[in-house]
Design a protein that fits this description.
This protein has about 200 residues and is of the alpha+beta class. The protein is built from six helices and nine strands; from the N terminus they run ββααβββααββββαα. It is globular.
Length: about 200
């Protein structure tokens, strides 16, 4: 959500990668640059089949980039645009998402922005957890301002996406792994029903 993503080839290994490039104007904003770095560093610390793999991070001509696993398929958000998923699919993907989160939580990493747009469904039907730009590593932190202008983010109050926040996160309180579990529950409901809880 912070940069432009291109399909590219890593020449030395002759493999296709997704290249996420932070725009020059965003790179000049220390908050965006920090989130961009955090995503790469946090996700690269995790090695799990249901978490998108980070291959490299660097800078070229003053623009920061992340080279990551190239995935074919669609986000869960895109999939849900066609309606709810079959129960068998909900269970299979739910187990994969929960397993990915268990790996992150075991490494003391809290995602803090679980939502359908951050879950990718590969062409082979496997879930991949994306976007660790809001991840929290280590002990819970108190209220934290979010300067992002991305739609759906409660700006200047707490970090995360309003419709997918645990109550304590929405109140600006320190969160732990339970906030992610709450949000996974919201996502599972939406997968099964096609709508978020409390919506038509």
């Amino acid at each position: 959500g912070m940069g432009a993503v291109y399909k590219a080839r890593q020449k030395n290994l002759n493999r296709i990668v997704a290249l996420n490039i932070l725009p020059v104007e965003a790179g000049a904003d220390e908050h965006f640059a920090e989130r961009f770095q955090r995503e790469a560093q946090t996700a690269s610390a995790l090695n799990h089949p249901h978490i998108c793999t980070i291959y490299d991070i660097g800078e070229q001509d003053g623009r920061s980039f992340i080279a990551m696993e190239y995935l074919e398929g669609a986000t869960l958000k895109d999939r849900l645009a066609a309606g709810p998923l079959a129960l068998e699919t909900v269970l299979r993907l739910g187990i994969q998402i929960a397993d990915a989160l268990d790996a992150a939580h075991s490494a003391n990493i809290i995602h803090r922005d679980i939502k359908p747009a951050n879950i990718f469904i590969s062409a082979r039907g496997h879930a991949k957890l994306l976007d660790f730009g809001l991840a929290q590593m280590g002990a819970p932190r108190p209220r934290e301002a979010d300067p992002t202008t991305a739609a759906g983010t409660l700006q200047g109050v707490v970090m995360g996406t309003v419709a997918y926040m645990a109550p304590e996160q929405a109140r600006g309180e320190a969160v732990d792994h339970r906030a992610d579990l709450y949000t996974v529950g919201l996502v599972l409901y939406e997968m099964a029903k096609g709508t978020r809880p409390g919506t038509a």
